[in-house]
Amino acid sequence: MQSPDSYWIATGPDWTGNGAALPKRTGVCVLGAGVMGSTLAYWLSRAGLRPLVLERNPGPAMGSSGRNAGRLIQGGNAQHALAIEKFGHAEALAVYRATLVNRDLVREVIAREGLEATRFPTAKLDLAVSEDEALELERTAEALRADGIAAEWLDLPASREVFGTDLPDTIIGGLYRPDQDAVHSVAYVRGMAAAAERGGAEFACGVTVTSVEPATGGGWLVTTDAGHVLADQVVVALNAWTPRLLPELAPVITPVRGQLVQTAPVPFRIPQWGLDRGLVYGGQAPDGSLLLGGLRNTVPGRDEGVELPEGSNTPAFSPELAGRLAEALPSLLPEATGVPVVRAWSGVMAFTPDRCPLVGAWPGAHGLWVMAAFNGHGMPYSQVMPEQLAERIRGGRGDGIPAAFDPARFL
Ligand SMILES: Cc1cc2nc3c(=O)[nH]c(=O)nc-3n(C[C@H](O)[C@H](O)[C@H](O)COP(=O)(O)OP(=O)(O)OC[C@H]3O[C@@H](n4cnc5c(N)ncnc54)[C@H](O)[C@@H]3O)c2cc1C
Fold this sequence. Notes:
This protein is α/β, with parallel strands linked by helices. The protein contains 10 helices and 17 strands.
């Protein structure tokens, strides 16, 4: 059952980038070619800059961006009603709206760059298994509607109807949100990287960055295993690997293992779904196969603070956890009984204490930026945060980055 590659890496387009050599100098140097670094390079190149992207893998999307479930779930990490209690209404709405702006940008960019085959429309159903959770989701449906966002609380029969297949009797109901997107993660990210290259960005892959330091005379000295680059500005987009270059973030960013199993294709279509406050979640790949992830609650320490071996794209894969996910499948989706699990893989997520990402300037250091730690939830920000950060890098306001994401809150 174990696979060295995710479905997306195995079925995505090869990377045939320009194989840039390391220049001595550059304007903006982006570290990491995941979805964040690749899309940032796209927005910088659209503004006429020629960013240099450094990536240690042979191509983009081989870290978490090529190992996720491909779901662009709108809203922040907390359900909207809870986010309002935690951050206040204005900030919670700013976060939710950012993901709606993202939805529109994703569709616009995909159409402009001819990447239509990488996106597929879907919906989201968050299912409750306890009365507490049902209440949270009902309140969230109300709060979203009050903010003009389509959402509905559905009882179990209505949930079964939108789910398109059976659901177990243990479910009370669900929060339904239409008009969501999923992507083929690797095709999407490599498509963005290729579009960035067409716009003038350069991708130097197979290059490991070892340090970033202020350069004498201004700018930043980026040291790699292939030599040095002097950059006017540097953006660190290294997900859970970020603290290796910015050790001040070691107490802030926790690496967390995520695992997925994938079945053979099934004849029915389901929306993206989450259960038990997202502890188990799933979706469907374009070929009809089911993706099932989560169950971190069955692992000691919930897989938080896992080891990230040097040079590896993922913490160690757990066959036991994959087995538990496979076993859980028929009880979660009765119609999937007997459908074989054909692939499983792991990846790393980067969590922060407040479950908000780090996007913005490094305080007190001109020209150093960070865009990392998306708390297992990066895809719904995958255009809007890079687009807004590109604006700030060019000296603009980038007002679309919620204040709650400012890295300064921890530094
Ligand atoms: C199992 C799983 C399921 C998930 N499902 C979803 C989902 O459905 N929806 C969602 O929104 N999110 C999901 N996520 C989270 C999502 O994948 C991340 O939020 C997102 O990919 C983060 O993008 P990134 O560009 O910051 O990181 P990455 O894609 O990890 O990119 C960081 C890059 O930095 C490179 N790098 C690291 N160190 C160095 C170095 N020293 N020098 C050069 N390069 C370096 C890495 O090789 C990597 O390519 C999931 C994650 C996992 C693990």
